[in-house]
Write a structure and sequence with these properties.
The structure holds three protein chains of three kinds. Chain A is built from 26 helices and three strands. By secondary structure, chain A is mainly alpha-helical. Chain A folds into two domains: 552 residues, no CATH class; 75 residues, no CATH class. Chain A starts with a strand and ends with a helix. By secondary structure, chain B is an all-alpha fold. In chain B, helix 1 runs antiparallel to helix 2 and helix 2 packs antiparallel against helix 3. Chain C folds into two domains: 112 residues, NADH-ubiquinone/plastoquinone oxidoreductase chain 6, subunit NuoJ (Four Helix Bundle (Hemerythrin (Met), subunit A), Up-down Bundle), CATH 1.20.120; 43 residues, no CATH class. Chain C is 73% helix and 0% strand. Classes of the chains: A mainly alpha, B mainly alpha, C mainly alpha. Chains B and C meet through helix 1, helix 2 and helix 3 of B and helix 2, helix 3, helix 4, helix 5 and helix 6 of C.
Amino acid sequence: MHAAATPVQFLWLIPVLPALGVLFNIFVGPRAGRGAVNFVSPAAVGVSFAAACYTFMRLLDLPHGAALVQDIYPWITAGAVDVHVAFHIDALSAVMILIVTGVGFLIHVYSTGYMHEDPGYARYFAYLNLFTFSMLLLVMADSLPLMFVGWEGVGLCSYLLIGFWYEKEANASAGKKAFVVNRVGDAGFILGIFLIFWSLGAGTHSLRFTEIAASASKIPPHTVTMITLLLFVGAAGKSAQLPLYVWLPDAMAGPTPVSALIHAATMVTAGVYMIARLNFLYILSPTSMAVVATIGALTALFAATIGLMQNDIKKVLAYSTISQLGYMFLGVGVGAFGTGIFHLMTHAFFKGLLFLGAGSVIHGMSGEQDMQKMGGLRAYMPITFWTFFAGTLAISGFPPFAGFFSKDAILGAAYGSQYGSVSLWALGLVAAGLTSFYMFRLLFLTFFGDCRVDEHAKHHLHESPASMTMPLIVLAILSLIGGWIGLPEHWLWGDRFGEFLAPIFSGAHVAEHVSAGTESVLMGASVVVAAIGFGVAYLFYLVQPGLPMLLAWRAKGAYNLIFNKYYVDELYDLLFVRSTVALSTFFWRAVDGEVIDGVINGTASVVNANGSLWRRLQTGNVQHYAISMLLGAVVILGYYALR
Amino acid sequence: MTLVPIQLYLILGAVLFTIGAVGVLVRRNVIVIFMSIELMLNAVNLVFVAFARQLQSMEGQVTVFFVMTVAAAEAAVGLAIIIAAFRNRETVNADELNFLRW
Amino acid sequence: MIVLGLGLLVMLMILSLAGVVVVGGIDLAGLNLGHVVFALQASLMILSALGVIVNRSPIRSALSLVVTLFLLAVMFVSLDAHLVAMLQVIVYAGAIMVLFLFVIMLLNLHEDRPAMVRPGVRGFAGFVGTLFFLGAVHFVMHPLGAAPGAATVPAGFGTIEQLAEQLFTRSLLAFEVTSILLLVAIVGAVVLAKRKLA
């Protein structure tokens, strides 16, 4: 990757503005009042978005494949390590910062409405800004260590925001679960970084991406496979793939805008970004590519099956996210890095929209999330309904919405790429059908049919305020037109998006042996499958509502298995959690409580006892003291006399 | 005047000092303890004067002068303390004036 | 009984004082009159010192102490410390002991009950005291330091002029500090002993 690097001086603005927002919210926020916080926090991200747009414009001016760089300061200079805090904006980073700041801005605005009555609003916006800052660090970093800093930062903010309403034990536990599972992934990530450093051999290393790319071919193949697999463990943790996905459904305990921003649009996509960024390493290891693609496809299918049967509106979307992330990994796993990023972008639009819409529904339902208690809401919340409908069409892959183009591109790559296979394509196709089904199921249960809402909640049913509906509308528009920059090759202006990103992945010579005819057939198959999903959902939930119950009763075993998420959480609890908790309890009670505390308390009591013994000399009787003085004098005299 | 060997004066001083010391240790009435202390001081004075004579130096007698002064001051203050303690506890028994006990 | 004893004591004191002043230089063979006087004084002194610590009544102890102080003053005279002897009588016996007597009468102290002497400690204290005495005697007989000095003293030794000269030149600092000490003692005694105004 030979990119011309142009130094500039303004890149620091992009992450610093949200950081300033954090400081404001921590120190001034609680005293400044809701109005100030509601203005400052979205504004910080908004101005950052403007800066990102400017950066993007500047990048377009440069020749294809160039990058804007800014070195902030040397961070670690010791021995063989020379890591700087520096930013590197190429086409990939530019796309990411636009997504993060743009969608982030919309979600900040949405939050001002959603979190309106919450007492901890300053804390919420501080965390949200901190998250934006960390995510920007992650995507703007020019080296692995700095990216890892951002990686950890978003993990931290995820924990803080999931457990935002920490007074409830369940929320705090969900936050902990997310953090711990993430940590498992991060262990793999760190080992990967160490292995890279070690395999680069002698000399000083800055672990810059450009530098690693230059030396990548010198690393022995098995080491490369090891490195990429370890890094993928990290990606699997952060992006909720098998087997480290268990934290994401629980993460729905946090406020819905958090789910939209972190667990749909940005943080969970960090794993995909990381693989795209390190594409030059992955290309060198076909084994890892296969692993990535296979896990991606399996996750896509697996999560879709669970999502079929969930009754909580947010849980359906959570499993949907896991599934869509599987698609992204499938894309990068078969070598279509640009396509994976394309789906990342469109997913940010429509999944963000879907989550915000769900938040709107929950807000209107005064906190109810169970779809079995909803129904017929489109009469009460029209804007929410129409935008949600747009999102559903997008995710199901109906043209001309965005999801169709990105998902179809991935499926096409899975079919035709040298790393892909028909079986991968088939898995993806089935998952697409299931996606369409469960999304329309969600739509019908929530907005159509009889209104099963409780009488009490019905009184409060209302459309959400403008601060919440405006972002919905914007995202709905983006879900429609967002895919039009990545059209298939022979349509209109073609794949402008892919061309923009192409220089980043220039090292990856991925051949796609797909003729125009095959491509059309594949596209048609996708649409047909989506339509089938729609049809079945229509049948089950609008025409014959009793049918699902009948089928569930007939296939009770399978139903129970899937409804209980294949008992994965219970399995993990049995295998890992119980022993760890037992070990921790042992260390807490026995080692810390008895041994360490014992030593310290023991020392104190020994001193105490000693003191109690000797203080009896202090009788308060002066004559006792006098006799000891005389005795002392006698001893001294005796000593000198007998010498 | 004829000189008595100085050792006799010193031994006399030692006897008086010992008597005073035993008195401090044995008696319980604080006033008597105080007087025993005065006795000890006087024994020391005797020794000082004897040595002044022996070594032909006035310094010994000046020291006695100061000892007397300090003893006076000490007696005054000490008796004031005894009076104050007596007001508190209505006793001059050394065993009962154990305010500094643990 | 007390009066007789006191009278006897006073007589003895006067006798010894006279003996010291008059009989001075006659040097009989062997036993010197000075030695005799000294022996008399010493035994009386020891008796009255024992009286201080043995008497059950504090008043009697105080009076015994007065006798001891007087005898000590006499002994000072025989050691050519005339001024110091006078000071002993005036300050020690005259002021300090009077203070003691005032306090004893103020506190209205009666005879101590027999329990006022610690039984167990008596033996031990006596033992320790004896040990101490033996130690002191040892160092008297085998002194660590210099040999004894001359037999006669220069003229004017022990008079006011000599004492004053020493006091106001070489010991001036101690003198000044002691005066401050006295001031402190006065203030302290007054503060400690006065009744708090209700």
